[in-house]
Specification:
This protein is 42% helix and 23% strand. Helix 1 links the parallel strand 1 (4-8) and strand 2. It is elongated and about 65 Å long. Helix 6 packs across helix 7 (164-172) and helix 6 crosses helix 8. The longest helix is centred in the middle third of the chain and has 15 residues, at 106-120. A five-stranded parallel beta sheet has the order 2-1-3-6-7, sandwiched between helices. The chain has a three-stranded antiparallel beta sheet with strand order 8-9-10, with no helix packed on it. A three-stranded antiparallel beta sheet has the order 11-13-12. The chain has helices at residues 12-24, 35-44, 61-71, 85-93, 106-120, 145-156, 164-172, 181-194; strands at residues 4-8, 28-32, 49-53, 55-56, 59-60, 76-80, 98-101, 125-128, 133-136, 139-141, 161-163, 204-207, 211-214. The chain has 221 residues and is an alpha/beta fold.
């Protein structure tokens, strides 16, 4: 699954092109048009970020923003037709992570969503095992076959240390007779593609002399 974005917008002329753009950019995007439908959708599956219109047919998006913020840390980007400084400040003070004024470009909104996800560390790395694809904050990341298998193993065991010997057996071959340094090389390639600093890792931690552990970054703040 990709990074889940819920668009809460009652104007089809805005919601439909925006969802289509998000899907093309690798996100898993859906839309609803009312406060009630948004509450129901969030209750079923908490998205990774919410794009929330202020003016909705059955209520004020700012009230929903307050409600969502009281219950979770899900990133929220408010949409509004009012661009006065007071409106922007009010939106941020009730818990929104960002604020964008209509009309806007889909490209700018997607860039803002990615910035919010990077800033908050929300569920940024996702593997689709069937399609064998990786996305980071909704952006596709190209992996070689062995890199994908290695990351899939580490993510399946997230939070626990996977020993070097077990990785070699499962990702390479139980009868592998080559150097195990190939594992270190593949870890280095993965870190580069994930933007992971080995000196201060956010995803893959080396447990010296034992193996590696994958840890999804936690929200900050």
């Amino acid at each position: 699954m990709g990074t889940r974005i819920l668009v809460v917008e009652d104007e089809p002329g805005i919601a439909e092109p925006l969802v289509a753009h998000l899907l093309r950019d690798g996100f898993e995007a859906t839309s609803v048009g009312t406060v009630g439908d948004a509450r129901e959708s969030v209750a079923q599956v908490l998205p990774d970020a919410i794009v929330l219109d202020v003016m909705l047919p059955d209520g004020d998006g700012r009230d929903l923003c307050r409600e969502l913020r009281a219950a979770s840390g899900v990133p929220i980007l408010l949409l509004t037709a009012r661009g006065a400084d007071a409106d922007r400040i009010a939106g941020l003070e009730i818990g929104a992570d960002d604020y964008i004024v209509k009309p806007f470009s889909a490209g700018e909104l997607v860039a803002r969503i990615r910035a919010i996800l990077r800033r908050t560390g929300r569920v940024s790395v996702r593997l689709d095992l069937d399609a064998r694809t990786l996305t980071k904050c909704g952006t596709p990341v190209t992996l070689a076959a062995r890199e994908f298998d290695l990351l899939a193993l580490l993510m399946a065991r997230a939070g626990t240390v996977v020993r070097r010997e077990e990785i070699m057996d499962e990702v390479w071959d139980p009868h592998w007779f080559g150097s195990t340094k190939t594992l270190d090389v593949h870890i280095a390639w993965l870190r580069k593609k994930l933007g992971d600093d080995p000196a201060d890792p956010r995803y893959i931690t080396t447990i010296r002399g034992v193996g590696f552990r994958f840890t999804e970054p936690q929200p900050t703040g």
